[in-house]
Amino acid sequence: MKEYATQMEAAKKGIITPQMRVVAEKEYMDPEKLRELVACGQVAIPANIHHTSLSPEGIGTGLRTKINVNLGVSGDCREYAEEMRKVQLAIDFGAEAIMDLSNYGKTNGFRKALLEKSPAMVGTVPVYDAIGYLEKDLASITAQDFLQVVSAHAQEGVDFMTIHAGINRRTVEAFRRAGRRMNLVSRGGSLLFAWMEMTGNENPFFEYYDELLDLLRTYDVTISLGDALRPGCIDDSSDAGQICELIELGSLTKRAWEKDVQVMVEGPGHMALDEIAANMKLEKRLCHDAPFYVLGPLVTDIAPGYDHIGVAYMKAPAAYSTFADAYLPYGGSIVYRDGGYTVLGSAHGISVLERVFDAGPSATAETSMESLTAYYEALLAESGESLDSLGETDYYAEYDIAVQQAQSLSGDGQYTHDAI
């Protein structure tokens, strides 16, 4: 019989689990050192007991920056086969995590196929799935219904879940007092806010947080504390709502650790370049050095449609990040591939900056550059080109031409990634 329910409980008891040994080998870290970091919450190893195809990875202090890729079935992208092609692309370019953000129809079939196939850790946002799973209108969903969806995802093998538990009556009051240009931009946060307004009740994930943690502990699911009040434009960055929620997330982090549930904290959204370092330090301080699942930071408000370019300059400055998010759920396979390579290079650059190298402790900037160059050579090889052949070509101009061609090919003037 196992002596522990979660990776954190094992670490607190002095036990080095098989998952810890795999991660330690990948990270060139002493297993005992890794165990100590897991025990204190500075490293999370999301590893649901039912995800049998998982190749475990660690996220947090002293480890390489990991890449998460978002995908899933939606009202705009309903083709399961296309989403599974994205899954394969994500695996091929080395993403360590895949989030299934499906929010259209019955999603469990796609999720089960993903979990069977993916060696990468898999995450979900249960509140996205609630309406389709329960076949109820939002206003008629109960607190226990929301927990039922969490339980279903956990039983299927999901390794980490985004739970927007920090948006409660206190944080909503701070948000309203301060006011915003962009209002709420978090989908999960918006759904819960709407539910709170419709029913007059407290956020169920906050009110029943202990019950939620008991569910997650049973299957060793890592909680990724969602940032429902993250800024959606630069003008709203670092405002009262964002910071008030971050304080709540710090408290929720400690409560999760008390039940041996591993934690990641999400943020920070849109903000000017000179605010990034302060926000990273603030998150680490208020949330007790829990791993940071970085959404953004987006340093411009004008990048939609060019996500695979925008990720390059929005990721690299976040030198304190531990988990980078490639938010490209609505692009076709081509833009998805290119975005993946871009984030891969950015995450590698962050690891170089933090002196955490793929080649181990003896690596140098030169060997890291060789590794990064190999990524781009592989990408170019697909089109029969090489780094030497690039010359002075204006690829931004060529991209714009490709967009115009795609619009003409689509016949209706709409931008279609797959036509490029």
Topology:
Blueprint (H helix, E strand, L loop, with lengths): L6 H6 L5 H10 L3 H9 L3 E2 L14 E2 L5 E6 L8 H13 L4 E4 L7 H10 L3 E4 L1 H9 L8 H14 L3 E4 L5 H10 L8 H13 L4 H4 L1 H11 L2 E4 L14 H19 L4 E8 L5 H11 L5 E7 L8 H9 L7 E4 L6 H21 L11 H17 L13 H16 L10
Parallel strand pairs: 3-4, 3-10, 4-5, 5-6, 6-7, 7-8, 8-9, 9-10
Antiparallel strand pairs: 1-2
List the defining traits of the structure above.
8-stranded parallel β-barrel; alpha/beta; disordered C terminus; two-stranded antiparallel ribbon; 48% helix; 10 strands
Description:
The chain is α/β, with parallel strands linked by helices and 420 residues long. Helices cover 48% and strands 11% of the residues. The protein has 17 helices and 10 strands. The strands form 2 sheets. An 8-stranded parallel barrel has the order 3-4-5-6-7-8-9-10, surrounded by 8 helices. It has a two-stranded antiparallel sheet with strand order 1-2. Helix 14 runs parallel beside helix 15. The C terminus is likely disordered.
